[in-house]
Design a protein that fits this description.
heterodimer, A: alpha+beta, MutS, DNA mismatch repair protein, domain I, Dna Ligase, domain 1, 5-stranded antiparallel β-sheet, 16 helices, 21 strands, extended, B: alpha/beta, 8-stranded mixed β-sheet
């Protein structure tokens, strides 16, 4: 955590400036960053904060790299740091230092989600926010300085907000986005306001804050280059030839010699409206009219944006306590309000209201582009219509529950009870190769569990098919399967355990 | 005479025999096709199959037609809904039978009323190539709804019910009763719109 007041840095000493002057620059005067001021926030413990929000301080905790045989420590909290755990240490070494260590595996998806939230948080300071994955947020704040009472006040406010949510960050301000990022990574609490001061200040930074590829840094270290200033003394043409023009561009961007375009962080648009009911409603049937008003607004909202939704949330707000939440996950991007209305009617019919409802809130998920479909000129009514299938799926699930509708897929496995799995209907997972070409027939109906057959008296038709496998995972089967005909004339798939003696079991019916 | 011919052309008038043959799909069994008007299972209506016990061969009887329906129209596979089946359809056997298991929509509602509702929705949506339903008890009024839904969605609905419902009144366009004999299947046509009762013995189902 950054502590104390950020210091204003004056231009570098004259000796440094002479060295810099010898580096040939594309332009004599800085062209980028004029008038800009970037706030960079580098989240040093993002892998940890993403997994253990707020509770990181209670116990020593580390996050380890997921696909690393050493399970090297990626991030650790304050307490673990005090006990001597450093990033890059192997997990065994860390556990030797702190036996009761809490260990989490790194989850990049959680980190990306947290960074996205931090990007939204930064939008309170300025509309120009840009993410720098994996662990930094940049914001252009020049225009907001007066509003927040100056750079110091703004930084203090940002730090207060972050520490209130238990996040640890180092902040820095600089006239270029990349320059601010370097300073933040170096954990230098600095405010640099003048662009011509950038080369001098950046020169003192270690190479690690550039976050260049490891082999590049190793090569540079081999050349005796330890700081950015050393780097700037290298001939430009040679540097570009050896390490590629991209790294040179990065340097120029950081020092303001080259304009840098950054992707703006834009919060995706969503529909979120609330309707207060005049009287508290206790019957779900009476919720339909106000809900339809909200859905009509949603329809207009979607039409205006030529978009659809994949998820719809409806909160039935009560006078006290948590709202009753309904969530519709659609099989296909939808913009058709009539379809949504039908789904919600089914869902509301299933819903039990514990308390009267005083308001309804309808929220959409992220807006999705609609897939347009050509209507064939000679299309026949019978052809497969993906919309009709998706509607049917949505409708069935709205009333019966999500798990009540599914498909099955075969799995290449010899044990019959494990040779299939439940999948999402219409999933395009490729069918396994028919590796069992010579395999005897299988029954169309499979019993959930083999049933013991008392006093079996039918006739065996074909068999035995011996299945003896699975000893390695503790669920081994040793069975002789037969196709049999019961006295009622039903074709059955039955087996006898090996060695024989335990009697017959029914496993399937040929249907 | 011309007045009678004009009357007979009226769309609300249904004629028992000699009416235009319905759209059908071959059953895959020549002897059975020969007994059905149009030479196969009628599409867009309700077909009732009465079985003495689950598993006597009712699925093998329907399989050839299901294969044809699922891959009709050449291109993308179409869905076949299995509504409240007595057991889970076994995926490797479906593949063996030439059906794409990912396009078999297994629907397992908990309550009996939900079964009828789900079958009606599946038939009416027109999204499925065929709907197989094990709905258990259902009265005449409910079956009529299912038939209307099948006509509206132009989807054949196969209703598989126990033989005890044989004497019930049913609006289904085609009613069959199955019985096993030796290694074959006896199929008795109890009711057939546009045709008459018939009996096919030892249909060779495999």
């Amino acid at each position: 955590m950054l502590e104390g007041r950020p210091a204003t840095i004056t231009p570098a000493p004259a000796s440094r400036q002479r060295a810099l002057a010898s580096v040939p620059a594309p332009r004599a005067k800085p062209i980028a960053g004029r008038g800009q001021l970037w706030l960079a926030a580098h989240f040093t413990r993002l892998p940890l904060d993403a997994l253990l929000p707020g509770t990181g301080q209670a116990r020593a905790a580390v996050v380890t790299a997921p696909d690393d045989p050493r399970r090297a420590v990626v991030a650790r909290n304050e307490r673990a740091a005090r006990q001597g755990i450093a990033p890059g240490m192997s997990l065994n070494a860390a556990l030797a230092l702190v036996p009761g260590l809490r260990v989490e595996e790194r989850r990049p998806a959680a980190e990306a989600a947290l960074l996205d939230r931090l990007g939204r948080w930064a939008l309170q300071f300025t509309p120009v926010v840009s993410l720098e994955p994996p662990a930094a947020v940049l914001a252009e704040v020049r225009g907001s300085l007066d509003l927040f009472g100056g750079a110091m006040a703004l930084v203090r406010r940002a730090l207060a907000g972050l520490s209130a949510s238990g996040l640890s960050a180092s902040l820095a301000l600089a006239p270029t986005a990349r320059g601010a990022l370097w300073l933040a990574r170096a954990d230098l609490a600095m405010t640099v306001t003048r662009i011509d001061a950038m080369p001098g200040i950046a020169g003192r930074l270690p190479l690690t804050c550039l976050q260049w590829p490891e082999d590049t840094v190793a090569t540079l270290a081999g050349l005796g280059i330890a700081s950015v200033a050393d780097l700037l003394r290298l001939p430009r043409a040679g540097f570009a030839a050896r390490f590629g023009p991209r790294l040179l561009d990065e340097l120029d961007e950081g020092l303001g010699r080259r304009p840098a375009a950054r992707r703006r962080h834009v919060v995706p648009e969503r529909f979120d409206e609330r309707l207060d009911l005049e009287d508290a409603v206790e019957a779900t049937g009476r919720l339909q009219p106000p809900l339809e008003r909200l859905l009509a607004r949603l329809g207009g909202f979607l039409r205006a944006r030529a978009s659809g939704i994949g998820v719809l949330r409806v909160d039935l707000v009560h006078r006290s306590g948590a709202p009753t939440r309904l969530r519709l996950a659609l099989a296909r991007t939808a913009c058709d309000v009539a379809h949504l209305r039908e789904l919600l009617r089914e869902r509301l019919g299933r819903c039990q209201l514990a308390l009267p409802v005083v308001a309804i809130r309808v929220r959409s998920g992220v807006l999705l582009p609609l897939a347009l479909r050509d209507a064939g000129l000679f299309e026949r009514g019978r052809s497969a219509n993906p919309d009709a299938t998706a509607r049917l799926l949505d409708l069935l699930r709205a009333r019966l529950g999500h798990e009540a509708v599914f498909s099955v897929l075969p799995v290449p496995e010899h044990r019959p009870e494990r040779a299939w799995r439940i999948v999402e209907p219409g999933s395009t997972a490729s069918l396994p190769v028919p590796w069992h070409a010579a395999r005897p027939a299988r029954p169309l109906w499979m019993l959930a569990e083999p049933q013991p057959l008392e006093n079996w008296e039918g006739a065996l038709v074909t068999g035995p098919e011996r299945i003896e496998t699975g000893w390695w995972d503790g669920h081994d089967v040793r069975r002789d399967y037969y196709v049999a005909l019961s006295r009622a004339g039903v074709r059955l798939w039955i087996f006898r355990e090996r060695p024989p003696g335990q009697g017959w079991f029914l496993h399937g019916v040929f249907g | 005479m011309s007045g009678v011919a004009e009357l007979l052309r009226h769309p609300a008038l249904w004629r028992g025999g000699g009416a235009s043959a319905p759209e059908t799909v071959p059953t895959g069994f020549r002897t059975l096709d020969a007994c059905l008007p149009g030479g196969g299972w009628p599409l867009s209506t309700l077909i009732e199959v009465l079985v003495p016990a689950a598993g006597v061969g009712e699925i093998r009887l329907l399989l050839p037609a299901l294969r044809t329906l699922a891959t009709a129209d050449g291109g993308a596979p179409r869905w076949i809904a299995w509504l409240a089946p007595p057991h889970l359809p076994y995926a490797p056997a479906l593949v063996d039978a030439g059906l794409d298991p990912a396009h078999m929509l297994v629907i397992r509602p908990r309550a009996g009323l939900d079964r009828l509702w789900a079958m009606e929705q599946a038939l009416r949506s027109g999204a499925c190539a065929a709907v197989l339903g094990w709905t258990g008890t259902a009265n005449d009024r409910v079956l009529r709804r299912l038939k209307l839904a099948a006509e509206e969605g132009r989807t054949p609905g196969f209703l598989l019910r126990p033989s005890v419902h044989r004497t019930d009144c049913s609006p289904a366009a085609l009613r069959l009763a199955l019985a096993t004999r030796d290694y074959g299947l006896d199929v008795e046509i109890l009711k057939c719109q546009g045709g008459g009762p018939a009996r096919i013995e030892r249909l060779p189902i495999h």
